[in-house]
Design brief:
The chain is mainly alpha-helical. The chain has eleven helices and three strands. 68% of the residues lie in helices and 8% in strands. The N and C termini lie far apart (68 Å).
């Protein structure tokens, strides 16, 4: 069996099926945390040969998923790493979210987000081939050994340490300038849609909950009206069913629409990470070019005292440069030798820096094309889900009121 080039989910399924509390240490003061059950099942028996196992069940805590994310971020700097679900509990107007990190509803949301994170990696044409990712799926705690053997923490260390820095580029690639604007707009637009749909869902929930009170009123009335007892009971029963079915649909809407769309708000952070990595590489090239220019200028001035008036534009600069010519011949030779050495080092570092930048731009360009294509199909599917759910809301309401109409005709 050959592992697919673009989609690992073609031969296996990945799901997070459960979660539970766990404790580090045996005493009552031990650290309590949540672990998630990651289940991987290979579809065909012959395919299991390539993986060495037909199915596996491993438990990971959130921090391990985060470590996998950090590994991918270090190892694949030119790729858009799928976002993890938020670590902290965020305000969610669809339901009343608790601040309790062990709350079942909150953990259910995290479970869905982590499953989506794993599946996104599994369908990525490059990331799904990674041995550390496969070990995470199959080897439980031993996956850390595989990850540590790659020494990933030292890969692109300088780049990743500079992610939070600020860079003023002279020649910023227009594609990344546009991408930066797009990432900001994407986050803003998606969050606006989530806010509006959340407000609609909140009002729908209030309406469905009112139907429950409505149903109770009809049921209580049926006790008083002997001649209308059966019709009133049927009306109350149908309204009660509408309340229950409607809230089930709202929960499905939250899981299938809200969570899917929220992922693209989080993708804005992934895009910004890619932009920052580009800026770091571009800044390194520009810094080396500036260093080369400065060293050449210094070497030129060392032999041309009369050039001070042409090069130095301020009194302080003139003074600093003039000090060079107060050196002894030996000092001047040492200074010139050092400038030549620094120039040679900068020139030697420039070509690799340019090659790294060019390679990054090529890989990032392909990655963005792939991401944009997937984004379009994914968002279309999400909007179809939302439309389908709204139709189900309408159909349930229609069925309820048709049943109420029929009950009212009962003799």
């Amino acid at each position: 069996m050959t592992i697919p080039k673009t989609n690992l989910l073609a031969v296996l399924s990945i799901s997070i099926e459960d979660f539970e509390k766990a404790k580090k240490g045996s005493d009552y003061m031990g650290d309590v945390f949540v672990i998630f059950k990651l289940v991987t099942t290979v579809h065909e028996v012959e395919n299991a040969i390539a993986f060495g196992v037909r199915s596996s069940e491993v438990w990971h805590r959130y921090s391990e998923f985060d470590l996998l994310y950090q590994y991918l971020l270090h190892t694949y700097p030119s790729h858009i790493i799928p976002p993890l679900p938020e670590k902290k509990i965020s305000t969610n107007i669809w339901t009343k979210m608790t601040t309790d990190k062990f709350d079942g509803e909150y953990l259910e949301h995290r479970k869905i987000g982590l499953e989506r994170f794993m599946q996104r990696i599994a369908v990525h044409p490059v990331l799904h081939k990674d041995n550390v990712f496969k070990a995470f799926l199959m080897k439980g705690e031993d996956w850390r050994t595989v990850a540590d053997s790659t020494e990933f923490r030292t890969k692109n260390e300088g780049m990743l340490k500079g992610i939070q820095a600020s860079y003023q580029l002279k020649n910023c690639d227009s594609r990344f300038s546009e991408l930066k604007t797009y990432a900001d707009e994407l986050e803003t637009r998606v969050n606006a849609i989530l806010r509006v749909t959340g407000m609609v869902a909140q009002k729908e929930r209030a309406c469905y909950n009112s139907y429950k009170d409505f149903a109770k009123t009809f049921s209580e009335w049926s006790v008083l009206e002997k001649g209308l007892k059966i019709p009133l009971q049927k009306i109350g029963h149908n309204l009660d069913n509408l309340e229950g079915a409607g809230n089930v649909l709202l929960l499905e809407e939250q899981m299938k629409f809200y969570e899917n769309l929220k992922e693209y708000s989080n993708y804005a952070f992934s895009l910004r990470d890619l932009i920052r990595k580009y800026e770091i590489l571009q800044y390194k090239v520009e810094s080396l070019e500036a260093t080369i220019e400065a060293k050449k200028g210094g070497i030129f001035l060392m032999g041309k005292p009369e050039a001070v008036e042409d090069v130095a534009t301020s009194e302080d600069n003139k003074k600093n440069i003039t000090n060079l010519f107060k050196m002894t011949p030996a000092q001047r030779d040492a200074r010139r030798s050092k400038l030549h050495q620094e120039l040679s080092e900068a020139e030697e570092a420039l070509d690799p820096a340019k090659q790294n930048l060019e390679q990054f731009l090529s890989e990032a360009d392909e990655e963005l094309k792939l991401w944009k294509k997937d984004k379009i199909s994914s968002l279309k599917a999400t909007f179809r889900i939302y439309a389908k759910l709204q139709l189900q809301h309408a159909q349930q309401g229609l069925q309820c009121w048709q049943a109420v109409s029929a009950a009212s005709a009962t003799k």
